[in-house]
Amino acid sequence: MHNKDWRINAVLELAQDAYVPWNGSVLKKGSVGNTTSTVKLSKKKYLNVPVPNATAICLKVSFECYKNAKEIRINNGFDKSIKKEVYFKSDKDAIDYIELMFESVIMAFTALEAFANEHIPDNFEIWENKNSKIIVERKGKQEIERFSSTMDKFDRLLPQVMDIDSPKGKKCWQDLRSLKVIRDRIIHMKSDDRRSSGHDVSTIWNSVFKLEPPYKQALSIMKYFIDSMDETPRWYKLCEFKNL
């Protein structure tokens, strides 16, 4: 089970040893089969690569970015300073910190989008009103992935798929909402965010230095659904930072 990277898109895991008749080999219990992709590098060269699990790889990027941002913050020491007005040691440290936090937020939310889409079954469909209380239209998996909002997927669709209550009103739902708010602020940055401002002005900079770890907020809502699954996703079982 541990002979393959935890971030691969595993499609099967052997429950017992299996004999392979065409080459006489034995696949050991816990062996993992995964999807692969062939990339054409040149006319005569092809590269075979394992396909990563989108949730796992995005979550890992979010974690690493947050960890590196935290190191910058600790090294600058302003959280422990007794001064009322503090600064980064350099402009580079300040911008690097902001850049890493932006990446952590965006990749955490991208991990959530991937998680939601991954757990909508291929044969799942819904019927919704289309610009009218009378006319309804069918949405299959592809339409849901493209047109249903991430919030709707976690509030209504995934609970329907898994036959559980909506997480709305729980701590994990607030984590999701908070993550979405800051992600939207980053993606749709306002004019006020580009001007000099004081501490009493609501800007993205006032928010980015007081964030909860974005990867934790993403894991919070994921865990709500994972706890109801018959089989825990392999990436989650092997994720080393899910409890950090």
What key phrases describe this protein's structure?
244 residues, alpha+beta, 2 domains, two-stranded antiparallel sheet, 8 helices
Main sheet attributes: strand count, strand direction, barrel closure:
2 strands, antiparallel
Task: From the alpha carbons, calculate the radius of gyration and give it in angstroms.
Answer: 22 Å
Query: Strand-residue fraction?
Result: 5-15%
Query: What is the total number of structural domains?
Result: 2
* Tally of helical runs: 8
Low-confidence residue ranges: none
Distance between the termini: 23 Å
Broad shape: globular
For the residues shown, what is the average pLDDT?
Answer: 90
- Helical amount: 40-55%
- What multimeric state do the chains show? single chain
- How many strands in all? 8
Strand order of the largest sheet: 1-4
User: What is the helix/strand order?
Assistant: EEEEEEHHEEHHHHHH
Structural class: alpha+beta
